[in-house]
Amino acid sequence: MSPFIEHFSTLAPRFDVVLCDVWGVVHNGVTAFPQACDALTRFRAGGGTVVLITNAPRPGEFVARFLDRLQVPRAAYDGIVSSGDVTRNVIAERRRQSIFHLGPERDLPIFDDLDVRMAPIETADYAVCTGLFDDDVETPEDYRDRLMRMRARDLFMVCANPDVVVERGDRLVYCAGALADLYAELGGDVLYAGKPHPPIYRQALALAEGRRGGPIDPARVIAIGDSVRTDLTGAAAMGIAFLFVTAGIHAEELGTRDNPDPAALAEILAAADAKPNAVMRRLVW
């Protein structure tokens, strides 16, 4: 069993770089977590570098503005890399192809300045999925017919947010990853732009190297997150340390946010084929 710790300060001296998940660790979509912001700020004050790494289907600068509204201090991080940033790179490589956008209007900034051409399912060259049109009420099953029409045309899909669900306040809502998974089950070809896949980590590490002015020893990098599927799996695939925060997306499975059930925690981690270096309830310095 991974050690359960109360304070990140006991781990911090071993690392130069933190790749920190955002939703579920730094905020819950409605409220920022002051203790997490304080921990990241203190890590940076001690000479560390923090890159926020998020499966948000929007460019990093839009994520920063959202964090500003939640009063997450800029002193808590050096930069942001989003799955939206990775998606934009894919779109830029396919600049002459038309896109069917599957997702809400609020995600349209992902296409800004890319000179893209939108098209319906019947004529698009490929699809970009950023989420459900109305994640307050819809489920992936509401999209089965639409996804089957895409599959009939063998449309390639770029999933701009591999998360299946995310916390919004005190409830979970479906994300683009849930639609992409259903499309893959139907036989569709999907590229997942964010965690746990390597491109987003490589981009985040490149940003950290730029901030630190040179190569980074992977042994001095730790990822922090609340999702076994994306955060733990991604860190393990990259060969970097991982700190698991229990009071996030898995809180309900673990019993309570304040006192996770050890047996339930062991079961979740045993099914992951990877284990964190340490476990915390919440990110606290």
What structural keywords apply?
285 residues, alpha/beta, Rossmann fold, six-stranded parallel sheet, 8 helices
Outline the structure in words.
The chain is α/β, with parallel strands linked by helices and 285 residues long. It has eight helices and 13 strands. The chain folds into two domains: 8-84 and 196-280, HAD superfamily/HAD-like (Rossmann fold); 94-192, HAD superfamily/HAD-like (Rossmann fold), CATH 3.40.50.1000. Helix content is 31%, strand content 19%. The strands form three sheets. A six-stranded parallel sheet has the order 3-2-1-11-12-13.
**How many domains, in number, for the residues?**
2
The assigned structural class equals alpha/beta
**Number of H/I helices:** 8
Q: Indicate the low-confidence ranges by residue numbers.
A: none
**CATH class category name of the largest domain:** Alpha Beta
Spatial separation of the terminal alpha carbons: 22 Å
Shape: globular
Radius of gyration: 19 Å
Main β-sheet, spatial strand arrangement: 3-2-1-11-12-13
Question: Order of SSEs, N→C?
Answer: EHEHEHEEEHEEEHEHEHEHE
CATH superfamily of the largest domain: HAD superfamily/HAD-like
What is the architecture of the largest domain at the second tier of CATH? Answer: 3-Layer(aba) Sandwich
Question: Strand-residue fraction?
Answer: 15-25%
> How many beta strands in the DSSP annotation?
13
Mean pLDDT: 93
CATH topology of the largest domain: Rossmann fold
What is the makeup of the main sheet?
6 strands, parallel
Helix content: 25-40%
